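Could you help me review a protein record that somebody else here produced? This is what I was given.
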Amino acid sequence: MRFVILFFGLCAAALVVSYFYLSRPSVKEPIMERVRAEMVQYQIADRGIRDPLVLQAMRNVPRHKFLPFLQEYRAYEDGPVWIGKGQTISQPYIVALMTEMARVGPEDTVFEVGTGSGYQAAVLGEIVKDVYTVEYIEALGQEAKARLAALGYENVHVRIGDGYQGWPEYAPFNAILVTAGIDHVPQPLIDQLAPGGRMVIPVGADGDTQELLVIEKNLDGRVQETKTIPVRFVPFLGPKKEDRQ
């Protein structure tokens, strides 16, 4: 029995030492960079994402730094990861797909609903001139704001509030991304989309699978809607419909 206890004690000690060794930035970051490159190739490029700006942005953004410390090891999994407060960081492929669907470039200004961890905003921030993003949950929004600032994303602007209303002070936007499921397309967001712009938004009934829609506003102001793929996002948060102005 004594030898069994000693054996498991040595194993536990080895795991602790290994964990702290691998947690050192000089060791961890090169490993994460290699894993991230593999994620971009096998989860994203091999599934048809072709925009070089999107692929490079996904290579550049350290996804693991947008997760709680004990969840970092899951950063490059092929799926969403819970970040607390009932919210998730989206699957890497979905982040890349929505970014590519938005068709954004270096001179564009983008609005995002649902900051969450700040990861999608950071990916956009690698590509566009400015990102304006709104988070309804104050704790998440403050954490994301601090995280983005620490990572040097000076072109990403975070606000706590109701994303349904957009951010009219900085409209119109060349693109709008909504990262929460809602049962309709908010009119304030359509109004704040620039002519020639695109909105990517998951639309469906509460608690159900949504359709990822691409909303295009023509130069004459008319709106065209295209259904793409079924998705499942966390619910859109905010005041009740009757309380919205």
Residues 137 and 160 are 7 Å apart (CA to CA). Strands lie at 81-84, 87-89, 109-113, 130-135, 156-160, 173-178, 193-203, 210-217, 223-231. Residues 49-243 form a domain with the Rossmann fold fold (CATH 3.40.50.150).
